[in-house]
Amino acid sequence: MERFWNKDIRRMTIRLLLIMIAGGAFFNLAFFAYLQKSRHAEYETMTSLAQAVMETYPEMPQEEIIKAIANGSANEKGRGLLKQYGIIESMPAAYEKGQESQRVLWTINGIMCMTFLAIFVVLWLSWKKRNEKLTKLCHYVDRVSLGDYGLDVQNNQEDELSGLKNELYKLVVSHREQAQLAKSGKETLVKSLEDISHQLKTPLTSAVVLADNLLENEDMAPEVRKRFVQEISRQLIGMKWLVVTLLKLSRLDAGVVELQRTAVSLKNVMDEVLQNLEMNAEWKQIQFQTKLVEAKVTGDEKWLVEAFQNIVKNALEYSPQGESVEITMEDNDVYAQVRIRDHGPGIPQEDQKHIFERFYRTSKVENENVGIGLALAKEIIEKHNGYVTVDSDDTGTTFTVRFLKTF
Q1: Strand partners, 301
Q2: What's the DSSP call for residue 369?
Q3: CA distance linking residue 15 with residue 23, whole number of Å
Q4: What is the pLDDT of residues 355-401, one digit of tens each?
Q5: pTM
Q6: Do residues 33 and 55 touch, judged by C-beta distance below 8 A?
Q7: Residue 272 and residue 308 in contact, taking contact as beta carbons nearer than 8 Å
Q8: If we measure between CA atoms, which residue out of 324, 305, 227, 222 comes closest to residue 266?
Q9: Which DSSP string corresponds to 66-85?
């Protein structure tokens, strides 16, 4: 009964009953009209026949003739009388035809009722099956809202509900991917915040201690005070660089950065990098030895400058004072390549596989670099259809960056 009160099923049932009633009424009215016309024709025939019989056989009792013709085969006496005079063969059996018409009418009405009943049963079963499928889909939507994405799309039939199921599956896949991206973005954000808080803890504590000493010791020697202020400034600059770099890396991880896809000159990129790091090189008395050629890649010039600047900056930081950093470029039909080599102490073999991990520092050299710049550079280069490798020994370290060309 619950299904019967479904609005669609109730509407379908009412419409089917109305069609059945209207169709039955129309057929019966048409059939009765046909019977009336047939009976009228039969009455005309019997009247003409009775008149002809009375004119042909005036000696026959008129009352018997009329009864015999009117009753036909239903009256044995009348049948015998008509047969005696040879009239029975030419007389229409009105009574038998009337009975036969009634039987035909009842038979056709019965067939119509059974047909409509069969149609109703078939539609009812079809709707029941359809309703069960819809109920399953509704239950699945409830499951999806709770985070269950295990929709089975196998054994689908070629009907509109299967099409709806397939479209729902596409929506579910899209929703699942968005949920995973959102989850990944949240995890990345949480990790970034943890990394930032961890890396900021030491320089922030140092800056706070130095500032407290400046406030509490009013008689501090001017040269000591100047050195404390310089150290606070250096710590703040380092924290600023760390926060900005981490935020850039987090944006790349979360996929919210839209890289430009234009033709970029690697030579122009390296010129800008060297210009930006000119003061750093002069402070450590390091010379840049370059061999640059014109090479084009497809990408975002701003982000490529960021990537190479981090690699060259790392080379400067690990190079001894007075040494040089060599930068060479190569271009061919397969790839565009940039090599950056320093003459520092090198990276131990066991550390080389971790050099691009975040916050990793080689244990061989005491340096305040927290190891985030190379991770950012690798991320940017890979998003430009490239890769970076490192080769290091006790004579120095070489970073090789290759951008594969697409055909």
Answers
A1: none
A2: -
A3: 12
A4: 887 766 555 544 444 467 888 889 889 988 899 999 998 889 999 99
A5: 0.49
A6: no
A7: no
A8: 305
A9: HHHHHHGGG-HHHHHHHHHT
Query: Exposed, middle or buried: residue 301 (CB in 10 Å: 0-12, 13-18, 19+)?
Result: middle
pLDDT at residue number 401: 95
Calculate helix-pair angle for 266-276, 301-318, nearest 10 degrees: 50
Of residues 185, 198, 184, the one with CA closest to residue 359: 198
**Token pair belonging to 98:** 């009337």
Tokens standing for residue 157: 């039939």
Per-residue model confidence (pLDDT) at position 357: 79
Long-range contacts of 343-350, Cβ-Cβ distance < 8 Å, separation of 24 or more: 343/319, 343/395, 343/396, 344/315, 344/318, 344/319, 344/320, 344/396, 344/397, 345/318, 345/394, 346/392, 346/393, 346/394, 346/395, 346/396, 346/397, 347/390, 347/392, 347/397
C-alpha distances (whole Å) from 354 to each of 103, 346, 348 are 98, 14, 10
List beta partners, residue 338: 329, 401
Maximum separation of any 2 CA atoms in the chain, in Å: 166
- The CA distance from 247 to 284, in Å, is 28
| Amino acid at position 24, single letter | G
